[in-house]
Amino acid sequence: MEKCIFDQIVEGKIPSKKVWESDSVLAFWDISPVAPIHVLIIPKKHLQDLNSVTQNDKEILGDLMLAVPEVAKKLGVKDSGYRIIINNGEHAGQLVPHIHIHLLAGKNLGPKII
C-alpha cells in the first residue's frame, strides 16, 4: 500500500511547517487555510478514518485529543477560542485517508458550521 501524504510528512519525506510535536502526534500548518490559523493535527500512526479504529487505538486517539489544547496554547488561541473539525469519509470532505483534526482560529468564526 502506498503511504499517504501525511505518512510521508511524518517520515520527513515531504516538508511541513511544524507547529507542535510529541512522540505520537504532529501538528503543522495547512497548505490551503480557510482561517487565519489553520493547523492540522495528526496521529503519527496511520489510521485511515474513524470507522477503521479499534479498541487498540484508544491511547493514540486520546493523545490526539489531548494535543488540541497544547497546540491552541502554542498558537495563542487557547483562551480566545478555536474550532476543531474531523471530516470522516468522502462525503464529509475527507481528502486525505488519515485521521486528522483541523484547528481553526484567528478570527471570530461565529456559529456558522463550516
From the N-terminal CA to the C-terminal CA, the straight-line distance is: 32 Å
Overall pLDDT score: 95
Shape: globular
Number of domains: 1
**Total number of helical segments?**
2
Reported for the largest beta sheet, the result is:
5 strands, antiparallel
Low-pLDDT segments: none
* Element string (H = helix, E = strand): HEEEHEE
Which secondary-structure class do the elements indicate? alpha+beta
Oligomer: single chain
Could you give me the name of the CATH homologous superfamily? HIT-like
How many strand units? 5
Motif (Histidine triad motif): 98-102
Active site: 100
GO molecular function: catalytic activity
InterPro entries: Histidine_triad_CS, Histidine_triad_HIT, HIT-like, HIT-like_sf
Indicate the topology.
Blueprint (H helix, E strand, L loop, with lengths): L4 H6 L7 E4 L3 E5 L7 E7 L14 H18 L7 E3 L15 E5 L9
Antiparallel strand pairs: 1-2, 2-3, 3-5, 4-5
In short:
The protein has 114 residues and is α+β, with helices and mostly antiparallel strands.
Would you mind describing this structure in some detail?
The protein is α+β, with helices and mostly antiparallel strands and 114 residues long. It has one domain: HIT family, subunit A (2-Layer Sandwich), CATH 3.30.428.10. It is built from two helices and five strands, in the order αβββαββ. Strands 1-2-3-5-4 form a five-stranded antiparallel beta sheet, with helices on one face. The model has no long low-confidence stretch (mean pLDDT 95). This is HIT domain-containing protein.
